[in-house]
Fold this protein.
Amino acid sequence: MEEVIYLDGEFVAKGDAKISVFDHGLLYGDGVFEGIRLYEKNIFRFEQHLDRLWSSARSIMLDIPMSREEMIEATCETCRRNGLTNGYIRLVVTRGVGDLGLAPWICKKPSVFIIAAGIQLYPKELYENGLQIVTAATRRIAPDTFSARVKSLNYLNNIMAKINAQNAGAPEALLLNREGYVVEATADNVFLIKDGMITTPPTYIGALRGITRDAAIDIARHQGYTVREEPFALYEVYDADEMFLTGTAAEVISVVKVDGRTIGNGKPGPITNKLLQEFRAITATDGTKI
């Protein structure tokens, strides 16, 4: 069965889901999006994703052309029409059709499309053995240039870092800011564990406030761990007892080597494994049933 896509108020077959070449989302990356997980017919932390979507749109002065309630129903119906129990949802709002000029006010009506499909996860063995990653030569865009908290359609900064990882034969790469602090990975947030203390970069240095990141923080604090949001450099990475990444697709996954340096004992650590186990336990209930 061909996938069904929600596009501006209609449900259309994947092959018929088209936008104009004059859409400013295509021409200039002018738009916002969310990547969301569906677990056992439960959209994980959907309300938090919608909060971030509306905040991102407000930041770039983009009016979402539907209510929050309409967005919820359209997303749930897209999942239902594709017969999904588990999967990935991409919710996109573009500036809409304009001309070849930059002016966003030329675009009279924003466009919304929703894709609900399967998801490609890290292989099981990487959760068992951990990731070996590198530091990207590409630096994270400074927050005084453009806030990373806006989840915009322009992902070239992350893509160039992903190319750095690919060229090094690694599945992921760390991005540093111009001061040399670790900000995030190309598609994931970063956590270190040292002497039982969990640390993650604060959003003010250029990190996205990830939904899975926040879930991991909530779980860790509920389990009694102290979690700090503080800047750290590569020295702290190399000296960590454990390290893990969080993201919509990655969930919670251990990192066992960075730039050739072994992290801890070179195996996924007990705290990371405990967080992953608890995260997977809550995914089918913490969200919105379709």
